Amino acid sequence: GAVVSQHPSWVICKSGTSVKIECRSLDFQATTMFWYRQFPKQSLMLMATSNEGSKATYEQGVEKDKFLINHASLTLSTLTVTSAHPEDSSFYICSASLRERYEQYFGPGTRLTVT
Amino acid sequence: GQQLNQSPQSMFIQEGEDVSMNCTSSSIFNTWLWYKQDPGEGPVLLIALYKAGELTSNGRLTAQFGITRKDSFLNISASIPSDVGIYFCAGENSGGGADGLTFGKGTHLIIQP
Lengths: 115, 113
Hints:
The complex is a heterodimer.
Chain A: E1 4-7, E2 10-13, E3 19-25, E4 30-38, E5 44-51, E6 57-58, E7 67-73, E8 76-81, E9 90-98, E10 104-106, E11 110-114
Parallel strand pairs in A: 2-11
Antiparallel strand pairs in A: 1-3, 3-8, 4-5, 4-9, 5-6, 7-8, 9-10, 9-11
Chain B: E1 4-7, E2 10-14, E3 19-25, E4 31-37, E5 44-49, E6 55-58, E7 61-65, E8 71-76, E9 85-92, E10 102-103, E11 107-112
Parallel strand pairs in B: 2-11
Antiparallel strand pairs in B: 1-3, 3-8, 4-5, 4-9, 6-7, 7-8, 9-10, 9-11
């Protein structure tokens, strides 16, 4: 149980284009989903918290107009990187938490490379 | 913001040895979590701790939630090759709803044959 999937697993895009990443909880309904970013050899940094049906809460320093988050259902959240630039190249990982529990289950991550 | 200090940064051990790593924080957490991450993959939850003083085991892994709520340790007994990877501690401070996690910088475990 508690399986989270992400799609795509990797993507290469040109500078200036937009990329959408999907995060799905496969066998449970997630009260909340989270988006993290991880640069090489570094730890995970929280970008935003996403609750179904409401606006995402962004961490300080994360541009909400650049990283658009939509949480349309209890099993799906999407992150759209708009007007991507090479410095946005990173490993993006989502997580989801079960109702009544605070532990988070992570997806396999999406490797974004902007050329 | 909150910061977690995780140590050691890396460990080089022989197969069969026991491993110990820890995290400390300048502030209190209500939940401590330990994850393992393999290259190119998402973190996998190993152990979740919810109460100060709690000691929890998962197979060869044992973790404890410090009494002060500001620290936690993870022990791995009798290490095997598949234990290789990066281990992260993470703290959560939910006040009733789930909050994002604050991660330590990770401990890179390397097992020498």
